[in-house]
Amino acid sequence: MIFKPGHTEAFVWFWLPGAMGPVVCGKVVANDSTPASVHRFVYGRSYRDSEDAIALSPHDLPVTAEEQTTRRGLHGIFRDATPDAWGRRVLMYKLQMSAAKAEAELTEIDLLLAGGQGVGALHFQTTAETYQPKQKHIASLEDLLIAAEAVETNTPLPPELEVALLHGTSIGGARPKALLQREDGQLTIAKFSSSTDTSPIVRLEALAMSLAQQAGIDAVRNQLLSVMNKDVLLVDRFDSDDGSSRRHFFSALTALGLDEMEGRYASYPDLAEYLRRYADEPVEQCRTLYRRMIFNMLIGNTDDHAKNHAMFWDGQFVRLTPAYDICIMPRVGLTASQAMVVGERGNQATLANALTSCRRFGLDQNEARQIVVEIETAIRDHWQDSCEQVELPQRLAESLWQRAVLSPAIFEN
Fold first, then answer.
1. Where are the alpha helices (DSSP H) in 190-239?
2. Range of the domain at 282
3. Which long-range contacts (CB under 8 A, 24 or more apart) does 244-247 make?
4. With 46 labelled, which of 76, 138, 403, 411 sits at a CA distance of 20 to 30 A?
5. 244 in helix, strand or coil?
6. Does residue 164 fall inside a structural domain?
7. Would you call 389 helix, strand, or coil by DSSP?
8. Does residue 322 fall inside a structural domain?
């Protein structure tokens, strides 16, 4: 979508749980055009009067006629819907903007309105009268890959492939990716290798996802492909099964009341407390979160920041979404720190540190240790087969084993 930058207001359209289409929910307005601007949100009268209306989160934005303001920037629920690094890069490419020009001219509301096909149950429009769905475009994986490479290298794209750039501007992360819709309607994210990769990151993510499933973790469905002799990982979106209905979710960063500048304060135990308060099955959900934390530590996934965890919200309870964006991160040393606080020793990636916080997950020491044993056993039993499945080079597999994966440092007291 090409538009003049500088928007300071947008109407919020929302798919209520189980609905096949959105209703106008409210309006978000910025006090000025700066990223740190105070933003105000108010629910529309028609939404407030609806028997089906729900708050946009259990902890924030209750359904009321009052304006609800932020300290700075967008409300967390809306910030989750803005493009992250890659989506912003695509948008700047389409608008032929330098980074400095984009920073000076693009507002946070611009980013909401430019959100492509969107994620979750929130979409943003310039009108409250009639919902205008984002135009669907058919593009092959080959076209999407070529378009992503053009963005990465800032090279001209053939006119017939420009449509491919309309995919993927609202999905998070810093790496090249795009959206596509399968014949059965399932929305899928295509993740591409990058020209700056020093390791086969796409294969390492596929490997991590395979191990996660073997370790009893509900991970998003995925498929590793080779397109034009380059690695592509197809990951099914968990917010829509058929492309028509949508499921509402928000990030752990938003659940914890933090923004990107405060992300270093995000904590697994604090997130467990949130689940204990708002989840429909808090005991099971806290155990699920603990299992994911231990798994990330044991495979060397240190990119487990709070935007890489999310939960569904149906107006009554929250529930963790399937695990996503799990990747083995190659490293030189044996020690590591997680992106979120693990226990009393902060972000230290050791099982001893994880045990210090197990009670906040509703686990005693024996139960926590049993989870560790189960995950470690699954990794050891399936490591070789999983490496072969994703065709990971043998030398790389050997360099990861007991360095990033099952590093001895993790088991130290």
1. 201-214
2. 249-411
3. 244/20, 244/21, 244/185, 245/15, 245/18, 245/19, 245/20, 246/15, 246/22, 246/120, 246/121, 247/15, 247/17, 247/120, 247/121, 247/312
4. 76
5. coil
6. yes
7. helix
8. yes
Q: For residues 256 and 252, what is the distance between their CA atoms, to the nearest angstrom?
A: 6
**289 closest CA partner among 347, 218, 208, 220:** 218
Number of H helices, E strands in the chain: 13, 12
Residue 294 lies inside a defined structural domain of this protein: yes
Rounded Cα–Cα distance for residues 48 and 372 (Å): 47
Strands 122-125 and 68-69, by their bridges, are unpaired
- Kindly report, residue by residue over 240-299, the tens digit of the pLDDT: 866 568 999 999 999 999 999 999 999 999 999 999 999 999 999 999 999 999 999 999
Question: How does pLDDT run across 245-261, given as a tens digit for each residue?
Answer: 899 999 999 999 999 99
Report the domain count for the chain.
Answer: 2
Token pair for residue 194? 């990058």
Quick: pLDDT tens for 98-136: 888 888 889 999 999 986 556 789 999 999 998 887 765
- 254 and 352: one domain? yes
Would the CA dihedral through 85, 91, 95, 96 be positive or negative? positive
Torsion of CA 392, 398, 401, 402, to 10 degrees: -170
> What tokens were used for 128?
């409250």
Instruction: Tell me if 309 sits within 8 A of 271, measured CB to CB.
Output: yes
Of 303, 308, 301, 309, the C-alpha closest to 328 is 301
Helix (H, G, I), strand (E, B), or coil: what is residue 336? coil
Which phi-psi region, left, alpha or beta, contains residue 345 (left: φ > 0; alpha: ψ -120 to 50)?
Answer: alpha
Which of 13, 47, 16, 22 has its CA nearest to residue 127?
A: 13
Tokens of 332: 């030189």
